[in-house]
Design goal:
Blueprint (H helix, E strand, L loop, with lengths): L13 H14 L5 E4 L6 H11 L7 E5 L5 H9 L16 H4 L4 E5 L6 H13 L1 E3 L6 E3 L3 E6 L3 H6 L5 H7 L2 E4 L10 H14 L6 E2 L1 H9 L5 H15 L4 E2 L14 H7 L36 E3 L5 E3 L14 H19 L4 H7 L4 H10 L4
Parallel strand pairs: 1-6, 1-7, 2-3, 3-6, 8-9
Antiparallel strand pairs: 4-5, 10-11
Amino acid sequence: MSNDLFSNLVGSGPAMQTVKKLIQQVAKTDATVLILGESGTGKEVVAQALHNSSSRSDKTFVPINCGAIPGELLESELFGHEKGAFTGAITARKGRFEMAEKGSIFLDEIGDMPLPMQVKLLRVLQERNYERVGGNKTFDCDVRVIAATHRNLEDQITDGKFREDLFYRLNVFPIEMPALRERPEDIPELFEFMFAKMSEMGTLVPSFSEKAMQALQCYKWPGNVRELSNLAERLSILFTDQKIDYEDLPERYQVELDSELLQSLSMFDENTPADSLQSSPAGEEKPSVPEASAIEVPTSVSSVNDNNGLEPNSNVSDINFDDGIDLKSYLVGMEVELIQKALSQTEGNVSQAAKLLKTNRTTLVEKIRKYELS
């Protein structure tokens, strides 16, 4: 599938690769999709990419923010109305579902939809037809429904604010958009994308020093990509065609650098060796890691039991130490074997494998890269 379809879905890290893979899988169908994620993570961008990747891409993509329209007007917005249906309805008007016929409709902030409207939306999803407000003509509905919310709908159901039956109608194929703090490896790429758009409009954009970019990667981004976009615009005004150093960043972004995080991220930048991000104490030699090609995996050292824990193999006691043993290579071999087993069990899903191994996803990605595993 062409990368042009994902041109606005920026990020080449593992989290975004998972999102793009899910989009490619569901785009071949007409299944209803529910996009989950914090505010500002780019859920509408995902919805647009899904539409562009589908067989409906030559038809209309119609977005509507369900939380921004008063409840008494939402039915008319979604399904349209006939002339005279209510005060002010001087002409008949198409609704968003009718505009999106044969295409896709994006119901943003579905968690904020009033309960009476949830009932009517459920009927449309079940019956695949609807009527305009004030009318009695039934319109067939051939529309791909994509919904999104930043709320936890299961909590909403418990609180009586969201219908359980509607939730299951919408949650056919969920896609969770990761928060920006969960994919710091994509931050340089996002700034590059934002600055490129500004350059196209004739703006002379700034650049970042290494320390400034590292600080931005260590920042937690509560406003996610929306906050990053606003910062990019602000910096382009303050530092037109200049280099931005750490001290130039707004104070809230001058965070303490997390050396462990930066070391795990260094694999995404071919020009930044991991060793340069965290130096050893003076006079202390850095431990060398055996090359992947030199690793011999000891298949009888340990096994993974049903509880995902280590179970020592009795053959370990039979090892002959007369000639010594290369402990470092031996332990690395064990680590490689465990990573391979976890990846095999999760069918290559790095995020799930990291959970099985109880380690950080970016740390696991680094080890996969270092040991040249697939």
